[in-house]
């Protein structure tokens, strides 16, 4: 026999479960980014480390509801996975891949080769002496083999190389270039092509892709790889933009230019900085920083309505363009989930309050969210 207390307990659990199921159904039936653009492109979000923790519960629910693609914000960078020789720290990366593949999402690994967030030991031998080209190529191969063995087909696409060019189209001066040489990007793609399963898409990713010099250099690079029979499947335009820059025309010119080379276009790290003093010349260079002053942090208590409108209009224009080119754009990924989790609260100035994404600090949809959904509804879909 159940005691009265136990019966009450069971009744409460029953009611609670019933109520949760009703809420879940109601949410699934309402608008979401992924349902709205389902026949057009994936809509994704970058997930930071704590998303897998208890603190990340609300974020996980929001991501499941709204997105069908995820990118690792930091957990798959070299410094996160392998900070010291032989020291593998894979828990966060593993959790990320497990979450994405359990949800049946398009999972993007970020990033195999970058000049930032790569530990110095990578370029050195055990005596601290610089490696030569052959040795560094072997180390690159080891990293790709390891990623391929561990994650295989559970990752749908990898950013193979990040930010190899400057805005003027010349190669950036990095240890990769110094040691491997000017064909570093080609070598990286050759290794990825050889070691990754053929289902894994290989992407070149960069910021400032609307600058003419960089656009031309990346077009040339894609052409060259294809001519040599080296696989490259996509180009990622990061999309760390502001309310006014770059223009829709410039974004369009780059989407069209990359697609013309026979690769998919990924908008890989979208956010719109609403705060003042973001120097256009910074691009999204994580090494550039400025000092915080009260005047460059004006929206600590929230974004005024007029600015919400500006942000919504900017997002509507951008998504209108992506929708127009939905045959070229494979994925649009936001760099973070809510405004509270955006790297723009700390870059290029530490500790500010930015409002760059579609969800506010309380996980609520902002006017910009509605504007993005309306783009599709307005198109008669
Ligand atoms: C950023 C992360 O969001 C931050 O948390 C980290 O401190 C620095 O890197 N371009 C990229 C991303 O390709 O990897 C960067 O991510 C943002 C700029």
What does this structure look like?
The protein is of the alpha/beta class and 381 residues long. The chain has helices spanning 4-29, 33-36, 57-66, 78-81, 91-102, 133-151, 175-180, 184-195, 212-227, 248-259, 305-324, 367-378; strands at 42-47, 69-72, 106-113, 157-162, 201-206, 234-237, 240-242, 264-273, 329-334. It has an eight-stranded parallel barrel with strand order 1-2-3-4-5-6-8-9, surrounded by five helices. The protein is globular. It starts with a helix and ends with a helix. The protein binds (3S,4R)-3-hydroxy-2-oxopiperidin-4-yl beta-D-xylopyranoside (XIL).
- Cα end-to-end separation: 57 Å
For the record, the CATH class is: Alpha Beta
The sequence of SSEs as H and E is HHEHEHHEHEHHEHEEHEHEH
Within the largest sheet, what's the order of strands? 1-2-3-4-5-6-8-9
Which overall shape is indicated by the principal axes computed on the Cα atoms? globular
What characteristics describe this protein?
381 residues; alpha/beta; eight-stranded parallel beta barrel; 12 helices; 9 strands
